[in-house]
Write a structure and sequence with these properties.
Blueprint: E1 7-10, H1 16-21, H2 26-33, H3 44-54, E2 59-65, E3 71-80, E4 85-93, H4 102-117, E5 122-128, H5 132-141, E6 144-155, E7 158-168, H6 169-173, E8 182-184, H7 190-199, H8 206-217, E9 222-229, E10 232-243, E11 250-259, H9 262-278, E12 281-286
Parallel strand pairs: 4-5, 11-12
Antiparallel strand pairs: 1-2, 2-3, 3-4, 5-7, 6-7, 8-9, 9-10, 10-11
């Protein structure tokens, strides 16, 4: 599989028309930039003034360029050098280029820029809970959920909740290795997860599985992992970290395990153990027998 790569450079005035064409509604504006920077309708003048205001300042406005020299994405990195952290914002991929892995390429380039070029210790961002593709992308790059900002933005259909996510430099240098063929679950796994749960005796439609995956993606102390073979999902496990009460520290619990073969179950339990240890939990418990499905 070819790994996509993007190059970051400072956003230029000539880029503003292309960027403007990506923001086609008030909801899209808030999802892209939050509620503080711009007003709807967004226009060329607002982008140019914003570019001028931040020139040479701590907020870097960056264009993402592909191998053909085309601007395919945009991101901002608001740097606090004293505390060595940055807020990542304004993440966008050109609408006609979405769904092909460029979002992950953009985030990998941004993370590399923050840690390798700027020498930062922490990167953080906020994403709305309905943006399942973005949440999966960020988790896949290594970001973890830290908390929920309830009703933080008013969109056209009501208030939106935001997730705070972060990635620390030590975790970037030594990323969690879940094991061969095991990864964090994403929205595209809904069909497979629904089938696995149904086979285990817990009937789920695709929409129900997608909703469950979203709910777990938003949990700061939980993860859903899937095993793959030949490009197909062969098993899934849901694991959560819990605070101990009778003693200091944390424990971890597998609350659902669905896999058709013992080798896949073993691989998933090993991956869940690695996830738990990485999150500082001592030991892994099963809430139901391994292989029962849930």
């Amino acid at each position: 599989m070819t790994t996509l790569a993007l190059t970051l450079r400072p956003l230029q005035a000539a880029d503003c028309d292309r960027l403007l064409s990506w923001i086609d509604s008030e909801d899209a504006l808030y999802q892209w930039s939050g509620t503080q920077s711009f007003t709807w309708p967004l226009d060329h003048g607002q982008l140019l003034r914003d570019l001028e205001v931040h020139a040479g300042g701590p907020r870097q406005l960056l264009a993402a360029i592909d191998d053909a020299g085309e601007m395919t994405g945009h991101v901002s990195v608001d740097v606090n050098r004293h505390h060595r952290f940055a807020n990542i914002g304004r993440v966008a991929i050109a609408p006609d280029r979405r769904g092909g892995g460029l979002g992950t390429a953009l985030m990998r380039a941004t993370v590399q820029h923050g840690f390798d070029e700027l020498g930062l210790h922490r990167l953080q961002l906020t994403v709305y809970t309905f943006n399942t593709a973005a949440i999966a992308c960020y988790r896949g790059v290594g970001f973890v959920v830290e908390g929920l900002a309830r009703d933080s933005t008013r969109g056209s259909t009501g208030y939106w909740d935001g997730l705070t996510m972060s990635l620390l430099e030590p975790d970037y240098r030594r990323p969690l290795a879940l094991g061969e063929g095991v990864r964090i679950a994403g929205p595209r796994d809904a069909d497979a997860v629904a089938g696995l749960l149904a086979e285990a005796g817990y009937p789920h439609g695709r929409d129900a599985a997608a909703a469950r995956l979203l709910a777990w993606a938003a949990e700061a102390q939980a993860a859903v992992l899937v095993a793959e073979a030949g490009g197909a999902v062969t098993g899934c496990v849901a694991v959560c970290r819990l605070p101990c009460f009778e003693r200091p520290g944390w424990s971890a619990r597998v609350v659902s395990l669905a896999a058709g073969h013992s080798e896949v179950r073993d691989r998933l339990l090993e991956a869940a153990t690695r996830w738990a240890e990485h999150r500082g939990a001592a030991g892994l418990k099963l809430s139901s027998p391994a292989g029962s499905g849930a």
